[in-house]
Design brief:
Length: 220
């Protein structure tokens, strides 16, 4: 289902992947610095989640400014929270690369503003912990503030997220967290000798099983 989400004086293009049965939880998903919501990994993940009963809303926000991207993500969260068509108990925020930074920033901002538990967790695909070859400047400040469960899916050869550095940040985080390393994958999740579909299937399986564990915790 295609929708236009109001954002300031313009609209963000978005697509709902709707499961057959009514969904209790949803995932909001966005892209990295390049590309848009039709990036193959996002399309694949949305379809996988919807087929397993999880509503997925993916959106496009062009812009390389992290503050702008964060505001856009916040507008999408508000839109889904107040949606009459999809009444959800909670959502997980997810993004690829810069999109995951925006998601983390939204969670930090919203947790400081209100205490409702609409946001259930964070999913970071290829979190860009640092710029290539600039390991001294880590983009970890939002991660250290977050309290909700966090899943990282990163390539072990990601030039923007050195394995030891992410493990170090993870050990300092107060949130329950899990890291799944895609062996030998780079920032774009490409692995020599493996097809894109094969890698996407591994990512989708990890995300769904983590979601199932964390959404179930809320039901008990």
């Amino acid at each position: 289902v295609k929708v236009k989400i109001p954002f300031g004086n313009k609209y963000l293009d978005a697509i709902f992947s709707v499961p057959e049965k009514k969904s209790t939880y949803g995932v909001i998903l966005t892209h990295g610095a390049g590309g848009d919501m039709n990036f193959p990994h996002l399309v694949s993940l949305s379809a996988c989640l919807a087929s397993h009963g999880v509503l997925c809303l993916r959106f496009t926000c062009k812009g390389l400014n992290i503050v702008y991207r964060t505001k856009a993500f916040k507008a999408v969260v508000e839109y889904l929270k107040h949606s009459d068509d999809y009444k959800l108990s909670g959502v997980f925020l997810a993004g690829r690369s810069m999109g995951s930074r925006a998601a983390a920033s939204v969670i930090r901002h919203l947790s400081q503003e209100d205490n409702d538990d609409f946001i259930q967790g964070l999913i970071c695909l290829s979190y860009p912990l640092h710029r290539p070859k600039l390991q001294s400047k880590l983009r970890d400040e939002d991660l250290l503030f977050i309290r909700c469960p966090v899943l990282f899916v990163s390539g072990s050869a990601d030039e923007m997220c050195e394995k030891q550095l992410l493990e170090g940040v993870s050990s300092k985080m107060k949130a329950p967290k899990k890291i799944h390393w895609i062996d030998k994958a780079n920032h774009g999740m490409a692995v020599k000798g493996r097809t894109t579909d094969d890698v996407m299937e591994e990512i989708n399986t990890q995300v769904f099983s983590w979601l199932r564990e964390n959404a179930e915790l809320e039901h008990k």
